[in-house]
Amino acid sequence: MSSMKLGVNIDHVAVLREARRVNDPDILNALFIACQSGADQITIHLREDRRHIQDVDAYNIMKHSTMPVNLECSINRSILNIVTDLKPHRATLVPEKREEVTTEGGLDVIKYEDEISYAIELLHDYIIPVSLFIDPTIEAVEMSKKLGAEMVELHTGSFANIYAMLNSSLSYSNHSIKELQLPRHELAIKLEKSITAIKEAAKHAKKIGLEVAAGHGLNYNNVDEMMKIAEITELNIGQSIVARSVFSGLADAVKEMKRLTTR
User: Fold this and answer.
1) What CATH number has the domain bearing residue 66?
2) Cβ(39)–Cβ(7) under 8 Å?
3) Residue 120 in domain
């Protein structure tokens, strides 16, 4: 058996901490437990609005992690300056909007070509490998290669939303997705199309020499679909693991996800 690399995103531990603005739960405890429970890397997102991970968290995690650290960040130059100081094992460039609840889509690598090109060159000057968080399209994959990224992370949010509307109680909740309130057969068709798009983007990325990761909205129920795509070698998962940990504890939550991501 071989394992998919599992990046455990611990941002949501910091979300809980920031809700009361006390150092509880301690983000470093989450780091140590994730490392001891099967994580292959730690993923954090240092947002411009600092809604969860703070600068001191990023520095402490870099100092104490026994696992590689994948630092997600925007192309904002002040953020990039912090990243070059931190020197994470990888920087993943992601889009950001202040009003969003979570990252809503992939980085627009065509619209922001010049800004992304600058960011990649800067990060490479500090010997930091770069991944681009993109929508699963051939065009975005091609542009990522042109810009000089070593890796792409395919945004699986659309897939996850459709899957949840079709296979969970989401459609009966206050968080039901209006545009996906469709007959089940239509949702099933949309789901198949979204999986096909991810497969084709992953295959093309590998063909042109890019490493392939995937993430956003992945959980214990839908991750099996990503495990079927051989070209994807890394998954970054956070919210569902931290949510599960409320009931099972973080160690067991990480171990269970690691079990599900073992081929």
Assistant:
1) 3.20.20.70
2) yes
3) yes
For residue 234, tell me if it sits in a domain. yes
Reported as a single tens digit per residue, the pLDDT across 232-258 is 999 999 999 999 999 999 999 999 999
Task: Point out the catalytic residue in the list 12, 52, 72, 204.
Answer: 72
192, 161 Cβ separation under 8 angstroms: no
Q: Does residue 225 carry a catalytic annotation?
A: no
Distances (CA, A) of 5 to 101, 148, 219: 26, 23, 15
Q: How far apart are CA 162 and CA 157, in angstroms?
A: 9
- Indicate whether 102 pLDDT > 80: no
Active-site option among 216, 225, 231, 234: 216
Q: Is residue 35 part of a domain?
A: yes
- Which 8-state DSSP code applies to residue 4? P
pLDDT of residue 203: 98
Please say if 72 is a catalytic residue.
Answer: yes
Mean pLDDT of 177-201: 97
Please, how many CA atoms are within 13 Å of residue 198, restricted to the half-sphere of its CB? Answer: 30
* Domain around 229: 5-157+212-260
- Please tell me the pTM assigned to this model: 0.95
d(CA 83, CA 92): 10
Torsions phi, psi for 222 (to 5 deg): -105, -5
Cβ distance 143 to 109 under 8 Å? yes
Separation of alpha carbons 203 and 216, rounded Å: 19
Residue 241 lies inside a defined structural domain of this protein: yes
Catalytic annotation present for 216: yes
